[in-house]
Amino acid sequence: MIYSSLPEPSDKLGYSFTETGVRKATFENIDDGVYFKVIGELPGTNNKFSIQYIYDISGDLKGWKDTQRILLLVGVMFAIILAISLQYLLGRVFRPLDMVSAASKKIADGQYDNRITISGSNELAEMAGSFNNMAEEIQRRITQLGEIAEQKQQFIDNLAHEIRTPLTSVYGFAEYIQKATISDEEKMLAADYIMSESQRMLNISNRLLELATLRNQKIKMKEVDVKSLFEHSYKSLEARLTENQISLKWKNEIGTIYGDKDLLQSLLLNFTDNAIKACNPEGVIIWNAYIENGCRVLSVQDNGKGIPQNEISKIIDPFYRVDESRNREKGGVGLGLSICEQIANCHNAVLSIESLPNVGTVVKLTFTSS
């Protein structure tokens, strides 16, 4: 070594030579430091002399390692934050799907009132809204089916109860005639009672057949003259009205009604028959035909015994009677208003009843179609 500008002893640096025209760069660890060393031929000395350049890079390496550690820490933290954010975002995005799945299972288990809480306005929220609509429709249909099933069961129960009494009476009187020693007069009385009860069962059968026919029948709609309808119906009821000492009046403010004349007359007779049963002697029944809110209306009003408010919604049910004993005595079978409702449905009309006890009843048929 001819010359060194290093402050440290040069013997630790070592000596090396290179080929002519070649420079060599290396890293060397000396004590606790790392040095970058470049060796090359000193020009013009025919490779007899070389020059070595040495630079301490320990600080740079330490700074780079510190930077690497910081970058690694920042990267790990960013990855964790990103993962949590992604998890939260995916949870928010797919939450409606989880709610739909959970709600579907509950609906499958019979909890038809279960709904999904909707938030936002994206596609999944729209899907949740559609699911709620579907659930509401399912609940409505299930409720409707339950009500229909209950009505059918109630109808069967009422029918069984209705025919049990006459059948029991018929059987009892037939057995009485067969086994007892009775006079001809007693046999005639028993036979009359059997015929009376048989006639009542026949009436029930005919009314049920009429109901079934109306449900499956498509009527031919024609213009019906209201005045003629009232006059023909009055002729059919005149004898009963006279017998019960009841007066019948009518008002007609419209010319015609669109419908089936025979069915409308049957409906008017049913309404009036119930009014006659409800009225006391000297009672008054009023038929009225008028326009209300742009719709044609037929109504039957009486000043009879009226119907309790809690009974009004039930009287259209088959076999239902507000006063069972009174109706049986007068031959009713409890199907008149059920038939009237079917006739109203055939005419796209609405049947409504207003009544107050000891004041009277108004039965209205409102035609919603012209």
Q: Which of globular, elongated, flat, extended, rod-shaped describes the shape?
A: rod-shaped
Uncertain residue ranges: 325-333
Number of strands: 10
Strand order of the biggest β-sheet:
5-7-8-10-9
> What is the mean predicted local confidence, pLDDT?
79
How would you sum up this structure, described in words?
This protein is of the alpha+beta class. 53% of the residues lie in helices and 19% in strands. It has a five-stranded mixed sheet. The protein has a three-stranded antiparallel sheet with strand order 1-2-3, with helices on one face. α1 runs parallel beside α2 (123-179) and α4 (226-243) packs parallel to α5 (261-278). It is rod-shaped.
Write out key terms for the chains shown.
370 residues; 10 strands; 19% strand
Write the layout of secondary structure elements.
Blueprint: E1 24-30, E2 33-41, E3 50-56, H1 58-108, H2 123-179, H3 184-215, E4 222-225, H4 226-243, E5 247-252, E6 256-259, H5 261-278, E7 284-292, E8 295-302, H6 309-312, H7 324-329, H8 336-346, E9 349-356, E10 360-367
Parallel strand pairs: 5-7
Antiparallel strand pairs: 1-2, 2-3, 4-6, 7-8, 8-10, 9-10
Summarize the model shown.
Helix content is 53%, strand content 19%. It contains eight helices and ten strands.
